[in-house]
Amino acid sequence: MLTVSDKLADEVLARIHRKSQRRMIVHVNDAATENQQRIIDALTHSTLGLFETMCGWQMTRTSVEYSPVNRIGRDLTGIISISGNLKATVVVGLSENLAFSVADAFLGSRPTGVDADVIDLAGELTNMICGNAKERLAVEGLVLGLPTVVAGSSRVAFESGLKIAQIGFECEHGALSITMGMCE
Questions:
Q1: Cα-based distances in Å from 124 to 31, 66, 116, 127, 138
Q2: What are the extents of the domains in the chain?
Q3: Fold of the 4-183 domain
Q4: What is the reported pLDDT for 10?
Q5: Residue 159 and residue 182: Cα distance in Å, rounded?
Q6: What is the pLDDT of residue 22?
Q7: What is the DSSP string of 2-28?
Q8: Confidence of residue 55 (pLDDT cuts 50, 70, 90)
Q9: What Cα–Cα distance (Å) separates residue 22 from each residue in 13, 18, 19, 82, 128?
Q10: Per-residue pLDDT tens digits for 2-38
């Protein structure tokens, strides 16, 4: 039996795939490995497509950074693992204002605080962004874990030795960052 969340996720993925016919290749720089570049491209396309399709918003990618510093933080943080032929942990950080604005666009009312619906929404956004990126990568054997959401100002530390990249996004409703720690 499909839940409303399952139906919503299926519809989002279908809409994003239809819009993906206009290809936006994002070249970062020579610091990225081939696999890291592929994942950055997939996450970028997925994020831009999701916000345009579901909210009608033009999200702008503001940065791609590589850093030995392995801590990131936002008001709401969704964490999901990718395993199989590529191994990575993806962290989607949302500003509170962006999370509340997305909730308003999806649910028709703006929350006044972080509640169970906002936490579920952060997890669902993480799942949709990473699920669509997984489909774009078209690598057999990739498996997504279940998203975990941390509410409140948080710092996530990656284990040492991972290749780390952070993609920044902004729109009129707030900021979002996607940080990826990847095994090569």
A1: 31, 26, 12, 5, 21
A2: 4-183
A3: Chemotaxis protein chec (3.40.1550)
A4: 57
A5: 10
A6: 35
A7: --HHHHHHHHHHHHHHHHTTS------
A8: very high
A9: 16, 9, 7, 26, 20
A10: 454 555 555 555 555 444 433 333 334 445 688 889 9
Structure tokens at 75: 């008001």
The number of beta carbons lying within 10 Å of the beta carbon of residue 47 is 23
Structure confidence at residue 111 as a pLDDT band (50, 70, 90): very high
Q: Chain centroid to CA 130: how far?
A: 6
Q: Which pairs from 10-15 meet CB under 8 Å and 24+ separation?
A: 12/50, 12/53, 12/54, 12/128, 12/132, 13/128, 13/131, 13/132, 13/135, 15/49, 15/53, 15/54
pLDDT in tens, 147-168: 999 998 767 788 888 888 999 9
DSSP readout, 117-165? HHHHHHHHHHHHHHHHHHHHHT-TT-EE---EEEESS--EEPPTT-EEE
Residue position matching structure tokens 């006044």: 112
Closest CA to 158 of 177, 178, 184, 181: 181
Which residues partner with 168 through β-bridges? 63, 177
End-to-end CA distance of the chain: 38
